[in-house]
From TrEMBL, chain A:
Residue intervals of the ABC transmembrane type-1 domain: 41-252
Keywords, comma-separated and alphabetical: Cell inner membrane, Cell membrane, Membrane, Transmembrane, Transmembrane helix, Transport
GO cellular component, one term: plasma membrane
Family as reported in the entry's similarity comment: Belongs to the binding-protein-dependent transport system permease family.
Protein name: Amino acid ABC transporter membrane protein 2, PAAT family
Lineage of producing organism: Bacteria, Pseudomonadati, Pseudomonadota, Alphaproteobacteria, Rhodobacterales
Organism, as annotated: Paracoccus thiocyanatus
InterPro entries in UniProt: ArtM/GltK/GlnP/TcyL/YhdX-like, MetI-like, MetI-like_sf
TrEMBL record, chain B:
Any one biological process term the GO annotation gives: transmembrane transport
Protein's recorded name: Amino acid ABC transporter membrane protein 1, PAAT family
Superkingdom of source: Bacteria
Domain ABC transmembrane type-1 span(s) in chain numbering: 17-250
Pfam families per the UniProt record, alphabetical: BPD_transp_1
A GO cellular component annotation in the UniProt record: plasma membrane
Keywords: Membrane, Transmembrane, Transmembrane helix, Transport
PANTHER family per the UniProt record, alphabetical: ARGININE ABC TRANSPORTER PERMEASE PROTEIN ARTQ, CATIONIC AMINO ACID TRANSPORTER, MEMBRANE COMPONENT
Length: 275, 276
């Protein structure tokens, strides 16, 4: 027990580079595996949390642009969404890494100020950028679908109340679109959370062996030749966090549906109906 | 230039596109079969089979699929070798010795004496099984949902005609469910296309492998020295995938337009106004 506490102290924050520098090499205990894989989860939560947050705003802008009648707005949004929805995330990671590596190493001079670029090739920035763009494209498609499926009665009612333009958008269109889109958006968030495991398997190297949960699980499975311990551990972690995510999005769903008693059905994760 | 693009390795690169298409062609029916079995298992009358079906269909819900792609091939490989070691080797020697998984040479899969292509094919075989298992679970979700979407009255009418449960399934349920399953299955096809680069993670020499291999900087020791060209190779791979999904997307759009027609929604309203 004490030994396990010591392990947690040594490896609990290993994914951030704190604590013991060397990973365990032999005599892998269960405690070591659970701790180290759990510490890798920090990265999964970091990527998913920030990507969902920033992607949400970008997705709204894209959905509006795609629904716009102005071709100068609509076409770029359509191309962006097609590019990111039409290609595998795995390839996007590779490609983004190759592009980011091409940036000049010394930094870019803008008006006499040197902007450093080397940090963009690191996973925490580069992979996050890819994930934001990716989830924005998928979510924009969901939001766009919701905008298309607004009941026309709602729009007519808003007009009858004398609402138009921004007021109508803010008070009728957007809340209703969010309400319609939310179950599908929950699925997208879960899928994004699961996709964060791809980061260290694609172009982005794990700097000083600071990887995510799957990186460490793979490390243990490679070292022990035993996939039956490490992978179930990481799977268990993901099931727990997915349930947490569903609960969190369920709260928002309840709030979006609060004017319709009984309408807020439990969100069921249906992985097949998206992407 | 044309010389460069027709070197032996480039030919292997082009052939690896075939590998991806082969994987798609083999996996799609296999996954459908797995999914069908899973969906039928969920509806089974036997409690044990039903439990198995439930576990199978829900296993992909909370866990990233890449974990299965890493887990299933190793687990299958070790399972096969363990079975063979019980037959061909001394059964008293345990296969797990500390951190090693050891079987005697006769039980190795594939045998170390077999040629290179056998190793490749075996790797691809394990990959296909992993894909079929994971996408079978996805497909089981879709098909189960479709089976539940078939109107209950249809099944009850069939029963009233004196059909046995088996006849109801075969004559009423299964022919009718496809319309409900089609959108989900089409979507699944798109996911499957986009999951194929994971072959690289499984160690199969696919397009990602060759794009990295051919694109990386070559010194003058090679016949065609060049700097790091991986960016351009990946752009080619990207174009391949965009083309694949673009074709599927076109089909989607037609279906979606058809379903929006005449509906009291913003899209249906726009369509009505646009019509002369």
């Amino acid at each position: 027990m004490n030994q396990c506490l010591q392990t947690i102290q040594d490896y609990g924050l290993r994914a951030l580079g704190l604590g013991e520098r060397l990973l365990p090499r032999s005599e892998f205990t269960l405690c070591e595996q659970v701790t180290l894989i759990g510490s890798g989860l920090i990265w999964n939560v970091y990527f998913a949390g920030l990507a969902v947050f920033f992607g949400f705003f970008l997705a709204n802008a894209l959905a509006v642009a795609k629904a716009s009648r102005n071709g100068w707005l609509r076409k770029p949004a359509e191309w962006f969404i097609f590019l990111f929805r039409g290609s595998p995330l795995f390839i996007q990671f590779f490609l983004a890494y190759e592009i980011l590596v091409q940036l000049p190493r010394a930094g870019i001079d803008v008006l006499g100020i040197t902007i450093q670029t080397s940090w963009m090739t690191r996973a925490w920035a580069g992979a996050l950028l890819v994930l934001i763009l990716n989830t924005a494209a998928y979510s924009a498609e969901i939001f766009h679908g919701a905008l298309r499926n607004l009941p026309k009665g709602e729009l007519e009612a808003a007009e009858a109340y004398g609402m138009a333009g921004w007021t109508r958008w803010r008070r009728v269109v957007w809340p209703h679109a969010m309400r319609l889109a939310w179950p599908a958006y929950t699925n997208e968030a879960i899928f994004l959370f699961h996709a964060t495991t791809l980061v260290f398997f694609s172009g982005f190297p794990a700097f000083q062996q600071r990887g995510d949960a799957l990186y460490y699980a793979n490390y243990f499975a490679d070292k022990t030749f035993n996939p039956f311990v490490a992978y179930p551990i990481v799977a268990g972690y993901f099931v727990l966090l997915t349930l947490g995510l569903i609960a969190l999005f369920g709260l928002v769903n309840r709030r979006l549906n609060r004017h319709l008693p009984g309408a807020a059905k439990k969100i069921r994760y249906r992985p097949n109906l998206i992407r | 230039m044309s010389c460069y693009l027709t070197t032996g390795n480039h030919m292997l690169f082009y052939a690896s596109f075939g590998t991806v298409l082969l994987l798609l062609a083999v996996t799609a029916p296999a996954a459908l079969l797995f999914g069908f079995g899973g969906a039928l298992a969920v509806r089974s009358r036997l409690a044990g089979l039903r439990l198995f079906g439930r576990v199978y269909t829900s296993m992909v819900r909370g866990v990233p699929d890449i974990i299965f792609f890493l887990f299933v091939p190793i687990a299958m490989d070790q399972g096969f070798e363990w079975l063979r070691s019980r037959v061909y080797c001394d059964p008293s020697v345990p296969v797990r010795q500390g951190n090693e998984f050891i079987v005697c040479a006769a039980a190795k899969l594939p045998l170390s004496t077999s040629p290179e292509w056998v190793h490749q094919a075996y790797g691809l075989f394990l990959a296909v099984i992993a894909f079929a298992v994971v996408f079978g679970a996805f497909a089981a979700n879709v098909l189960h949902g479709a089976m539940r979407a078939v109107p209950q009255a249809q099944l009850e009418t069939a029963e009233a005609y004196g059909m046995t449960p088996r006849q109801v399934s075969r004559r009423i349920l299964i022919p009718q469910m496809w319309t409900y399953a089609l959108p989900g299955l089409a979507n699944l096809w798109m996911i499957l296309i986009k999951a194929t680069p994971l072959l690289f993670v499984l160690g199969v020499e696919d397009i990602v492998y060759w794009a990295r291999e051919l694109g990386s900087a070559k010194t003058s020791a090679y016949s065609y020295p060049h700097p790091d060209w991986r960016l351009y190779y990946f752009l080619g791979v990207l174009a391949f995938y965009l083309l694949m999904t673009w074709g599927s997307e076109r089909v989607f759009d037609r279906i979606r337009t058809r379903l929006s027609r005449g509906q009291a929604t913003a899209a249906g309203e726009a369509m009505r106004k646009a019509a002369p």
